[in-house]
Amino acid sequence: MPEIKKDFSIYERLAALARSDVYPYHMPGHKRNAGAGLPEGFAELDITEIEPFDDLHHAQGILKEAMKEAAELYGAEQTYFLVNGSTCGVLAAISASVAEGDTLLLARNAHMSAYHGAYLRRCHIVPLYPKRLAEYGVYGAVEAGEVENLLRRYPEAKAVFITSPTYDGFVSDVKSIAEVVHAYGKLLIVDEAHGAHFGLDGRMPPGSLDCGADLVIHSLHKTLPSLTQTALLHVKGSRADRARLERFLRIYQSSSPSYLLMGSIDQCIRQMRKNRAEWYDSFFERRERLMKELSALRVLRVMYAGAEKVKTGGAGAEKTKNDDTETTAESFCNQFDPCKLMIFCDRAGISGVELQRILLEDYHLQMEMAGANYVLAILTVMDTREGYLRLAGALKEIDAACHETYKDGVKESANVLEESTEQDLFLSAVSSMQEQEACMPLAVAMDNDHTEDVELQDTEGRIVTEFVYAYPPGISVILPGERMTRQVITLLMDYRKRGMTLQGPADETLRTVRCVKTEQKET
User: Fold this and answer.
1) Average pLDDT over every residue of 225-247
2) Using the 8-state DSSP alphabet, how is residue 518 labeled?
3) CB of 343 within 8 A of CB of 302?
4) Which of 267, 276, 222, 269 lies closest to 89 in space, CA to CA?
5) For residue 407, what pLDDT is reported?
6) Residue 519 — very low, low, confident or very high, per pLDDT cuts 50/70/90?
């Protein structure tokens, strides 16, 4: 057997095994053979549950210790490694928190995985709407007052599920929400997939665990140095049934977890424990330089976390404070994620899809996603000075070109957005989504056999039986069981026209949407 020291990381243990003469008469089929055609080093480190490498679903050794270190880093009482991404953590958290048919308060801007979890438990969903930044066409934070209003109306609810930070970076006041939820004797689940860096540095927003959440899901790979599909599920307090949680983790997680992924989780936790002070000092220094460069933009608008009051008019930098709410943008979030950068281009005369294309094709800069009127960039401790310089230079060049094309917001080129009336329709559609009517339970609609495909423009008033969502971020524009409105039809047609990636419908072109047949009675 290879010599393995007690303080070896999972990767170091795997490397020691690869150097040894232990021959694998076990899975996986590549037999740790470098000639298997896998990327260099992968095969040598990829194993199954063998001695002395522990078992994720019954951890007693190195994996138990590694998960304990992760719990200590985040202040959890118990932490579970997730190798099926944060999705399986969301599914397990919901399944363990509600019984079949229970009522769940679910944020309307939640990721698709949360709705899939509600579907699997056939929950009665009460939508919890975050505030909206109508000027920008994006959702902000969930407010504690709205949570309390719904808990008063639906005292039978067993749990509350919110997303914080959102994909765009808006952070809810989790502490106040947790106090409300617990005062009503309910359980709070926070999908903090995009906030694995929260609480690791005093300049970052606090983590949801520290704010009182019962179950928190982190996606390490989104903002920390870890391989894609690596995530964590944290538990704190006695409200969550840990035995049920572990049962559902065994259901939703692979029974053959990848040691490459678990090794990556372990390495990420070790790196953050060791280097986070130095890394975040460098991160905030470089980030501040970037923001100073972007403050000169004239038609592009950049929203990011900062120390100054939000600007509500004109172009340039749009900052959100991290301590209170003062102006239009700040009224929608208590904090904003310092690792998110939203670049709005509606005043530049181009769409978000077009801006993303220009950045990629002309400057070789790949954004995280493109919305109708903005692109989103994710910043992390692994970004380089050169990467920031390239982004600043590209945006300033694009800004200058758009400023020459536009004068006082008047269109002077054919390669721009449609007239302001179409933009007004888009914003109207966004602001009206809160009014969508749920006429049929989600699970009933999804499993409905009495359906028909209807031309999108003819679906007004019809009950939809499939999800329609932009991916990324995986947030549904309309849910199964909701009644289609003219505003949503306008929004979807606008998305389709702008070339945004829409998923969910059986008809991938979105020419048609599957609806309940008109002769079936609503339930």
Assistant:
1) 96
2) T
3) yes
4) 222
5) 56
6) low
- Please tell me the distance from the alpha carbon of residue 122 to that of residue 367, in angstroms, as a whole number: 36
CA distances from 116 to 355, 360, 446, 479 (A): 32, 33, 10, 11
Question: Dihedral, CA atoms, 490, 168, 373, 229, nearest 10 degrees?
Answer: -80
Yes or no: say if 168 and 111 are a contact pair by the CB < 8 Å rule: no
Burial 220-239 (b: 16+ CB within 10 A, else e): bbbbbbbbebbbbbbbbeeb
pLDDT at 158: 98
Cβ neighbours of residue 463 closer than 8 Å, sequence gap 6 or more: 439, 440, 445, 481, 482, 483, 484, 515, 516, 522
Contact between 223 and 198 (Cβ < 8 Å): no
Q: How many Å apart are CA 197 and CA 210, to the nearest integer?
A: 13
Other C-beta atoms closer than 10 Å to the C-beta of 429 total 23
In 137-275, beta strands by DSSP E: 138-139, 157-163, 170-171, 187-191, 215-219, 231-235
The band of 130, judged by pLDDT with boundaries at 50, 70 and 90, is confident
Q: Which of 3, 85, 125, 93 is nearest to 52 (CA)?
A: 3
Structure tokens at 322: 């991290």
Q: What is the pLDDT of residue 33?
A: 81
Q: How many CB atoms lie within 10 A of CB 519?
A: 6
Nearest to 229 by CA among 84, 113, 93: 84
Collect all residues with Cβ–Cβ distance below 8 Å to 10 and sequence separation of at least 6: 53, 62, 63, 66, 259, 262, 263, 266, 267
> What is the Cα Rg of the chain in Å?
24
Number of Cα atoms under 13 Å in the Cβ half of residue 295: 11
Instruction: State phi, psi for 428 to the nearest 5 degrees.
Output: -65, -40
In contact, 211 and 174? CB cutoff 8 Å: yes
Model confidence pLDDT, tens digit, residues 147-194: 999 999 999 999 999 999 999 999 999 999 999 999 999 999 999 999
Indicate the burial class of 378 (C-beta count within 10 angstroms; 0-12, 13-18, 19 or more): middle
Euclidean distance between CA atoms 161 and 98, whole angstroms: 11
Helix or strand holding residue 44 (H, E): helix 42-45
Angle separating helix axes 62-74 and 259-294, nearest 10 degrees:
20
Strand ranges inside 83-214, DSSP E: 103-107, 124-128, 132-133, 138-139, 157-163, 170-171, 187-191
